[in-house]
Amino acid sequence: MTTDFCKPSRRSPRDRIVEAARDLFRRHGIRGTGVDAIADAADSNKMTLYRHFNSKDELIVECLRRAGMEMDGFWQELEDAYPGDGLGQLRAWVRRIADHLGDDKCQCEMMSAAVQLTDEDHPGRSVIRMFKDAQRDRVVELCRRAGVAHAELLCDTLLLLIEGARAAQQSSGAEGPSARFAEIADAAILSFAGSGDAFK
Amino acid sequence: MTTDFCKPSRRSPRDRIVEAARDLFRRHGIRGTGVDAIADAADSNKMTLYRHFNSKDELIVECLRRAGMEMDGFWQELEDAYPGDGLGQLRAWVRRIADHLGDDKCQCEMMSAAVQLTDEDHPGRSVIRMFKDAQRDRVVELCRRAGVAHAELLCDTLLLLIEGARAAQQSSGAEGPSARFAEIADAAILSFAGSGDAFK
DNA sequence: CGAAAATGTTACTGGTCGGTAACAGCGTTG
DNA sequence: CAACGCTGTTACCGACCAGTAACATTTTCG
Predict the structure, then answer these.
(1) A118-173: pLDDT as tens digits
(2) Most buried residue, A166, A175, B29, B151, by most Cβ within 10 Å?
(3) All domains of chain A in start order, with CATH
(4) Is A81 an 8 Å CB contact of chain B?
């Protein structure tokens, strides 16, 4: 009843700014994206941007936070799709990552940001760290539920393979080592799940 | 006989500029490093820099090329240390990468650059691609010499683990998944080398 | 409606950055 | 010595960029 039609851009300016920033950050890098370009792409302006975020760095942090929240949502989807089935969730997770590797821009906003935020004290780095730590805890738990003997080892193996696939996609292209990511990661899961001591 | 003593900085200005650039690129990122800072760190000046390189991009390309050449030298060292021993070279390679993961800045200049050079047409990207392709060929050959059944698969597994370890080092720190890289990679090698069908 | 809050517009600042011009020094080599 | 090539110094340009001020407009809501 309030704003349900006739509005060319119905989401709030703040929302549009964050999404525009994430998109531009992915496409042109964080340092390569100016606030003017963000405001413009958000169909807004620089002043509104600075009324919601005291600095570009604050906006970066919000982008990272939102990316983390989207991942949280995805973990929930996985739990709903494979309730209590750790193995199923692990494999679905790997499959989904493999399917999205070529997505013009992998949603590796965390990794990409980690490389670009060279300042060790950048507030965004703590967001990345917290997200990565939480992700690791979650994956370890899934590995345990999958009945894997060396849960931490499978977890770290998968995390390394995933980060590697995203990095390889950037540097070697889709035909590089990342092309076999799904095959390799799934084999690792089955290997660990099958006999507790495979791969070790 | 020409310039062998008494010079506070004996390498040529060009040399110093490239090395200074590589160092600063690693520490502060490519976009975060200005040409003035490079010239200054090289104990030279901007004019000499621009007499050797027509643009910053050209300097970036030279940095990538030199990084690639250093890797070529390392492959030769491996061949000398383990002549004809593919398995030995593979394991030494992994060990060396693991040892240097924490090196203030991993020498992942290629990966780091690939993330930062968001422009798909940047001349540096082709250098990265060529280097990555050559590296893959080399590793596949080592896997074959190691008597591995699925050489390409082990090769891509190792490459993904390595890129992943470097990326994880950046985003999750030294205590993250990269801490177990050596263990995981070595297990993968032995698993493939032992029984031809492990992990698959 | 009417006031307050949020948003949009324009213009500006101070700083940085990539790149260039002009000139001066300095070592080599003939 | 003299000419030349490489290097260093200073100053500058135009573009861009993060952030701000002042003012106009629209939206929201009591």
Answers:
(1) 998 999 999 999 999 999 999 999 999 999 999 999 999 999 999 999 999 999 99
(2) A166
(3) 11-53 (1.10.10.60), 60-194 (1.10.357.10)
(4) no
